[in-house]
């Protein structure tokens, strides 16, 4: 896989924390459809796991007729699928919430896109044979550590409902952009769940098991849950698919421009459909015009652009709002929730024209 030199040179990750390592992509400067591994954002709950890949096996057990255990070489011999997909952290843009919420203060770069190659999870589950009582499929990673809320050690594990686990494009991936998955992003195997927030795309898969009830692990029942109220759990519901969203990549926030012609450009994506329209406002939302949207594959972000001629000096608030095929549109204000997930209010940057 060859990446244009300009797509990553002189661009760097922004560190949000070192223990565990959480770093943000310079998404405003990424112009390629496939994000180079060096600019892939890093999201961890614990320190990186340690294991010997030479002895790596993937067991599938639980409510199956025939428990199986796969080596990576076994998986390479099975029919493969390649999926170009957006991965977005559920906390992306958390720093923009008002009132502020606790948690990693991501700006706009907890997002990436690339091509993932692997085996459909349903291929593996069918080979094992699901029992009638099967309800959810739990995927557990090798990463583990102590949670601050319980002072107990937990491994990172998430479950999928059976219909999502059996979707043909939910894959156990072993390649990213035609290369083995980088260790910091899940080598040797990572689950990829297109259109769901990336907490479901479990890294460093340790085992997969099938259960007959709702999974109650803390990264399922405590974290990655929308809590609409500060002091109450009333009305809580799980984080699943990505909200319709967009980013203005150019111009940058607080950039100084000259009068004349400029191109406003960026990306947009959705977890429940295709982006059909992106609208741009150059006057803080008073009026809107359609941007040119470049169609993309099912799970990929779309690129969009809008030509802007600026005859008058001054300060401008540029805004973008995307609409998907299900008529979901970015709202003017986000759905506030106390853990700060799913921010998708209309995109906004300010510029000065001199």
UniProtKB/TrEMBL annotation:
The keyword Hydrolase does not apply. Residues 239-353 form the Moybdenum cofactor oxidoreductase dimerisation domain. It holds the Pfam family Oxidored_molyb. InterPro entries: Ig_E-set (IPR014756), MoCF_OxRdtse_dimer (IPR005066), Mopterin_OxRdtase_euk (IPR008335), OxRdtase_Mopterin-bd_dom (IPR000572), OxRdtase_Mopterin-bd_sf (IPR036374). Coiled coil: none annotated. This is Sulfite oxidase. One of its GO terms (molecular function) is molybdopterin cofactor binding. CDD domains: SO_family_Moco_dimer. Its cofactor is Mo-molybdopterin. Residues 45-217 form the Oxidoreductase molybdopterin-binding domain. Keywords: Metal-binding, Molybdenum, Oxidoreductase. GO terms for biological process: sulfur compound metabolic process.
């Amino acid at each position: 896989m060859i990446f244009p030199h300009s797509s990553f040179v002189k661009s760097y990750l922004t560190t949000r924390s070192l223990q565990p390592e959480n770093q943000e992509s310079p998404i405003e400067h990424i112009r390629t459809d496939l994000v180079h591994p060096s600019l892939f954002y890093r999201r961890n709950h614990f320190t990186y796991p340690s294991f010997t890949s030479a002895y790596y096996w993937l067991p599938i057990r639980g409510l199956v007729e025939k428990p199986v255990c796969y080596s990576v070489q076994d998986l390479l011999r099975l029919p493969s699928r390649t999926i170009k997909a957006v991965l977005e952290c559920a906390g992306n843009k958390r720093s923009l919430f008002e009132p502020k919420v606790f948690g990693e203060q991501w700006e706009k770069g907890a997002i990436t896109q690339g091509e993932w190659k692997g085996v459909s999870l349903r291929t593996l589950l069918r080979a094992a044979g699901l029992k009638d009582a099967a309800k959810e499929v739990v995927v557990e990673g090798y990463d583990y550590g102590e949670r601050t809320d319980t002072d107990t050690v937990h491994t990172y594990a998430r479950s999928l409902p059976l219909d999502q686990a059996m979707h043909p494009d939910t894959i156990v991936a072993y390649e990213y952009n035609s290369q083995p998955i980088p260790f910091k992003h899940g080598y040797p195997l990572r689950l990829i769940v297109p259109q769901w927030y990336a907490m479901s795309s479990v890294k460093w898969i340790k085992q997969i098991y099938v259960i007959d009830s709702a999974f109650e692990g803390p990264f399922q029942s405590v974290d990655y849950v929308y809590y609409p109220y500060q002091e109450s759990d009333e009305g809580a519901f799980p984080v699943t698919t990505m909200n319709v969203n967009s980013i203005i990549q150019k111009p940058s926030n607080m950039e100084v421009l000259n009068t004349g012609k400029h191109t406003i450009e960026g990306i947009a994506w959705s977890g429940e459909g295709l982006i059909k329209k992106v609208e741009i406002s150059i006057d803080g939302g008073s009026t809107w015009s359609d941007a040119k949207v470049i169609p993309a594959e099912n799970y990929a972000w779309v690129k969009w652009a809008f030509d802007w001629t600026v005859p008058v000096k001054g300060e401008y608030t540029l805004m973008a709002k995307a609409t998907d095929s299900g008529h979901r549109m970015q709202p003017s204000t986000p759905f506030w929730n106390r853990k700060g997930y799913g921010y998708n209010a209309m995109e906004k940057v300010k510029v000065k024209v001199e």
